[in-house]
Amino acid sequence: MIKQTDGIHHITAIVGDPQENVDFYAGILGLRMVKKTVNFDDPGTYHLYFGDESGSPGSIITFFPWPAAYKGQVGSGQVGTTTYVVPEHSMAFWERRLDKFNIDYEKTSRFGEDYMKFQDPHGLQLELVERKEGKMNRWSFGGVPSDKAVKGFGGAVLLSANPTKTMELLEHVMGLQKVGEEGDYIRFKAVSDIGNLIDVRKTVLPTGKMGVGVVHHIAWRASDSDDHKDWRLHIGNHGYGVTPFKDRQYFDAIYFREDGGVLFEVATDPPGFANDETKETMGSKLMLPPWLEKKREHMEKTLLPAVTRVLEEDKS
């Protein structure tokens, strides 16, 4: 039996100023900030999570805001573009919204779908695509009503230093199915209806450089802790060096770097983001793991502002 991931669990990127990050993803894109915490490996900086109304796997984008960090460079060994899915017949709304906030965008097409490509304030490459698949996001914020709200990830474009090896991994280890080839892209599909389409570029670009405006890693879904253990054995048996299990409070994680240079994670769907605050209050205050709670007062004084707020353009 072929082992298959349901698709993307989350994508994590490096950005600059945290308030600019919140204003863009919550204020402009209308995502819910489902968790405000800190980077457990670097507690002096935030780890901010955005997603649908409940922080469902396949909708979660997370950020390490490092205002003083150097600018990254998108290239081989990275996720090149993060794709978001919006409801059918909503693209005109999103065009008007990006125009309203003076965000430049470009219209493109790939595999018979129309995309709108743009960047966040720190250079992260994003795109929107309409699809029927995927449950509607019931979250509404600022100027984004729930019937136009981002559902979650459509997928991602991978830039590999060894596309053949990356594609072999996607198909024969992660269990995605090759479903198409067009121009410079080969498309793979996971079994879920969200976060499920991965396009691999065949052209090898110069090696990317980690920094502000680039994706740090892409995480794949494991259904529970038993499935997670199976994934660690499965990946290791295919010759990849896999980390020990890491408790990330809202999921457990393992990591490995595939042969094309992209850092992969496998994360568990449970326990989710309501395990230390209620679903209604998620994202409303700084949440810390027990081992950092004693440092709360210092952190709250030194961390820069990162507040979800309705932007002025949506108040008029």
TrEMBL record:
Return the CDD domains for the record: PcpA_C_like (cd08347), PcpA_N_like (cd08346)
Has keyword Oxidoreductase?
yes
Cite a single Pfam family from the UniProt record.
Glyoxalase
Q: Which UniProt keywords apply?
A: Dioxygenase, Oxidoreductase
**What InterPro entries does the entry give?**
Extradiol_RC_dioxygenase, Glyas_Bleomycin-R_OHBP_Dase, Glyas_Fos-R_dOase_dom, VOC_core
Positions in coiled-coil regions: none
Oxidoreductase as a keyword?
yes
- According to the entry, every stretch annotated as the VOC domain falls at 7-131, 152-269
Q: Where is the signal peptide?
A: none
What GO annotations for molecular function exist for this entry? dioxygenase activity
Give the Gene3D superfamilies listed for this entry.
Answer: 2,3-Dihydroxybiphenyl 1,2-Dioxygenase, domain 1
Identify the SUPFAM superfamilies for this entry: Glyoxalase/Bleomycin resistance protein/Dihydroxybiphenyl dioxygenase
This protein's name: Ring-cleaving dioxygenase
